[in-house]
Amino acid sequence: MNFEEYAGKPVLAEHGIAIPDGRLARTPDEAAAAQIELGPVVVKAQVPTGKRGKAGGIKIADTPEDARAAAEAILGMDIGGNIVKRLLVEGRQAIAREFYAAVLNDPVSKGPMVLFSALGGMDVEEAAEQDADAVRRQPVDIRVGLEVAEARAMLAGLDIAGLNDDIADILVRLYGAYRAVDAELLEINPLALLDSGELLALDCKFVMDDSGIKRQQALAEAGTPDKLTGLEAEGEAKGLKYIELEGDVGVLANGAGLTMTTMDVVRHHGGVPANFLEIGGEAYTKGTDALRLVLENPKIKSLVINFCGAFARTDVMTDGILTGWEELKPDLPVFWSVHGTGDVEAVAMLKDRLGVEPLPTMDEACKAAVNAAKEASQ
Amino acid sequence: MIVRGTDRVLIQGITGKQGTFWTERMQEYGTQIVGGVNPKKAGTVHCGVPVYGSAKDAMANGEGFDVSVLFIPPLGVRDAAMDAIDAGAKGLVILTEHIPVQDVMYFLAAARERGCAVTGPNTAGGVTPGECFAGFMPAFNEKIFKKGNIGVMSRSGSLGTLICLNIVQAGYGISAFVGIGGDPIIGTTTRDAVMALDSFPGTDAVVMVGEIGGAMEEDAAEFVSTMSKPVAAFIAGGAAPAGKKMGHAGAIVMGDKGTYASKKTALEAAGAVVMPTPSQVGDILKERLG
């Protein structure tokens, strides 16, 4: 789950990392009022994506009129598909240097990784390309945590204005914050050294591990939910993973891998999948809801149902679908492939209740669904 | 991480609905279940085996165990896994999905230090046809897990099962199946699993089932290039849009990272055959094995 800057920064502040004084504004009037309070400010679009500056979503303002004009220009702007609804108005700072600091979950070392670069304000990967030594990396034993000595060691030899101890302290605090909030990424870019000598987190990127949300309920309320289409939101409410796509061949399968593969095979045979919908794992009893969801997409012209049961029993899934089918009686060509746990019962059920037999392979089922969708389009 | 018939297996969470159902299936198939764990039901007998208060208790007071299979809800896994690792388990099979990643990193660090091989999380488990299985796999289905000479690994349980079915339909059988799980951070990686299958007795070819996201297939390709046994690979998610988690937490293309093209290129350069659809696995094996 992504957190916008205004929602991520308090996490830093709670762990003793200084942030600029700021106000959240939802209207030009609120932006103007914040400017009066704070003096010269930066007005920043709040969207769960980067590249706000390049898109024109960050403007400076020295008067209430400037702040109002900046807010009017930025509110409603589309930045990477996100419509700006909120602004963060922050006191403008006199910046001497910019650094980069982050902690993230690293799949290679299978533990936390602390990153620091003296080249702040830019993309850290670009910085690493320019100068391999510019981005320092410190893997952490999560059972122990980041120790001050480790933080100091990773900064050794960098041109950081003699602030090694202060920055090491910030890295330890950043690591503490990352652990406390189940972050998969907590990043300060830039970490600014002001003319005054103070170190300040000017921006914050915080991504919470989706699997951590259940023990971070209060904090998670400040996060930005994924942008979902109506059908995707309906799926989420029912505990089903549904992703709307652009095609006309409906896909219903169990397990993430098998569902992706069903989409791939539909593509391979020249069709375009209408959706991703999987009812594997704990969701295998939700066949009826799943069928209803897949049929609600007005674009679909055929449906492929592909089950290969391991944990998920194909008889339970098939029974769920058939219950929905009998209730909704959709006029839609449907092609089945059913194998694995419970398949004998599932196939008998299909013959008995729907009068159809599954196709011998998923390839044939996908191909038939693609052809049916093409025929229906003619 | 390939569980054998001689391994003594403990089931943490044996008394739950799924724990009970799959323990019975494992016992029927030949997995040597020596006990279970449920702190609230210690001292009782369930599925014909003693229930202990902890894995440490099972190790100290029972006949001991080699591998523990965890049927434990997400927020309980860290402590349960640490219990088994501290008890001296040689291997863990962690089926649970949606475990907080920092918890996963925690017990993986401990497991690495203690030399305990973790499979998962978010795996359906593994099958050694004719011997045993660990997890929730339809090992008992002869149409899918017929014993043979093809080693199979997969990030996905359902897709791995389908590939095994296709292999058996083509007249081959399975020497061992290793499900590694769909999470971004897991104990046994694609490379680990391919290496284990390469040296597993009676294996003449390896089938690798990957998916978009991460760089495990690219990493495994390095090892594939050193193998003499043929490798056939299928990578799921070629038709998936970028930036979306495709059901598995690990199955996401971010920018130019974790793409189908990157994996296909790396594997083909390493000498593997990358199949456009899973149904081709039989023909490819026939071509490579004769």
Largest interface: A-B, 54 and 61 residues
Q: What's the gyration radius of chain A in Å?
A: 26 Å
Strand order of the largest sheet of chain B: 3-4-2-1-5-6-7
Q: Provide the helix percentage of chain A.
A: 25-40%
Largest sheet of chain A: 7 strands, antiparallel
The overall pLDDT of chain A, averaged over residues, is 94
Taken as a percent bin, the fraction of beta residues of chain A is: 25-35%
- Strand coverage percent of chain B: 15-25%
Average per-residue pLDDT of chain B, rounded, comes to 96
Shape of chain A: elongated
- The separation of the N and C termini of chain B measures 29 Å
Overview of this protein structure:
The complex is a heterodimer of chains A (378) and B (290). Chain A has 378 residues and is an alpha+beta fold. Chain A has 13 helices and 18 strands. In chain A, the strands form five sheets. In chain A, strands 1, 8, 9, 10, 11, 12 and 13 form a seven-stranded antiparallel β-sheet that branches. A four-stranded antiparallel β-sheet of chain A has the order 2-7-3-4, covered by helices on one side. In chain A, strand 5 (78-79) and strand 6 form a beta hairpin. The radius of gyration of chain A is 26 Å and the shape is elongated. The two termini of chain A are 42 Å apart. Chain B contains nine helices and 14 strands. In chain B, strand 3 (45-46) and strand 4 (49-52) form a beta hairpin. In chain B, helix 6 runs parallel beside helix 7. In chain B, 58% of the residues are buried. Classes of the chains: A alpha+beta (378), B alpha/beta (290). At the A-B interface, helix 9 of A face helix 4 and helix 5 of B.
